[in-house]
Request: fold
Amino acid sequence: MSEGIISITPAFARVWKRNAQVYLTLWKFNIFPALAEPVLFIFVFGLGIGSYIDEMEGVPYLDFVAPGILAIAAIMQATFECTYGSYFRMRMQNTFEGIISTPISAGEVGMAEIVWGATRGLVTSSLVLLLMVAIGVFDSWTTLLLPLITFLAAFNFAAIGIIVTSRIAQMEYFHFYFAGFVLPAQFLCGTFFPVSRFPDAVQVIAWIIPLTSFVDIMRSLTLDRVSASLAPELLWALGSTLVLTEIAVRSMHRRLVE
Amino acid sequence: MIVEAKSLHKRFRDVVAVESLDFQVQAGECYGLVGPNGAGKTTTMKMVYCLNRPTSGELRVFGLDVNREQRRIKARLGVVPQENNLDPDLSTCRNLQVYARYFGMAKQESLEKCRELLEFMELGDRAGSPIPALSGGMKRRLVIARALVNSPDLLILDEPTTGLDPQVRHLIWDRLLDLKEHGITLILTTHYMEEAQKLCDRVMIMDRSRAVDEGSPVRLIRQHVSPYVLELRADRSLAADIQARFRGLEHQTSGQNLYFYGDSPSEFDDLLSTYPDMERLLRPSSLEDVFLKLTGREIRR
Reply:
């Protein structure tokens, strides 16, 4: 019997619902704190530092940085959910063991956690998006497509989170993951200034991290610069998400069913 | 046949957890696994409910192969794990409903089932309670109620009453016997031989990853130990003195305790009249005596 994505049945949605139900019972604790960082970024970078920058790539700095802030909001939410959140459910509460004692498979638990992480990323980034629209950052109709891309970006990072979570022996390893990958990715991936500013070697690393592609696609949408040259980025964004999800689902299966 | 295991092995990296295990569980019986900590009981159960994969050997549950038909097997199982794993963020009733949904039950159906099961486990007035507000005994009863949401054919319980007060323990025993009467097959592990003796039709004694013996509690007692046990408390020199004088009587020592075994109480008359002032307990032998005889008295390392 295969243990990858192919073995996943729609039953995984029942685990997603469990997470959603717990989230809604605790909504006050979940929604507002998550907005603090992106709102701060808008003020500090967009409006604060931005007031010293005339233009970046031909547009006002706030317009340039907004898609980056949105993407960061999405991936950070997904990352926290699928690292500390998932780990807590897995090891401290033994929730997963309870779930896989029913017809739900371990792979489906992994999938549900990823989709749930992506959902949280979507919720948080959509609230930030509304705020940005309210202060007049976006005016293009292509803004409507942003939630789709933020969801995918969150999905991608949720999958990476589950890969890490299902492989670590103790929670402290997350320190390495955050310091060595998540934090650098936030700043390296063309979020606050173009990747082209880096030396070639760093640019290669930046483009390998799928976040760079997601941010570039989002920026192309908001600045109305969509062109065929985005195709490879879109392919990398989708392809890496698929591969990472496959690895994450298998990895979770190995972790839970010994 | 509900469970059938043939030369079942389980190894975790280089640790052997279960070795050459053969056993069968019949429909409607209560089957007990007893043994010291680390004997392989939990691993054996986890293989039955498909959370551990056998390294080799054959294991069938409901006639289905555990390596291939996990979903179909798990749909008909109820599992009470050693550690409670309730959802602390959901209320008592929600815990059951969320769990029922994992089995694909519809909302209305699960709500009715939840009420029925809370009544059954005497938690009817606790439906809305948050989990942290429940006592240890209530949580355990709730985990048992949760294991019944899908009306399982086989209920697996890993140390169902460890750490509970006598009232709760008796309630759980009563309920398990009710379930058995309704034709549900039970497999349980326990460290309380009284519990095994009370509930189980057959018991497998495990030690160091293997089965040591298997049978009904009555047969195990009759076969392995004499019907009566005399327990004495004596310091080392006194113990040596007693042992020297009554060489003929079968006995064991454990710390400051001496255990003499006999076919009738009168066999101990001489001994007791020689040492009239000693602390003593004369009792019929139990499964615990069998357990200690077969698995030894020393602590496992």
User: Anything to note?
Assistant: The interface with chain B takes residues 1, 11, 14-15, 17-18, 21-22, 25-26, 93-95, 97-105, 256-258 of chain A (CB under 8 Å). Residues 5-257 of chain A form one domain. The mean pLDDT of chain A is 94. DSSP finds ten helices and no strands in chain A.
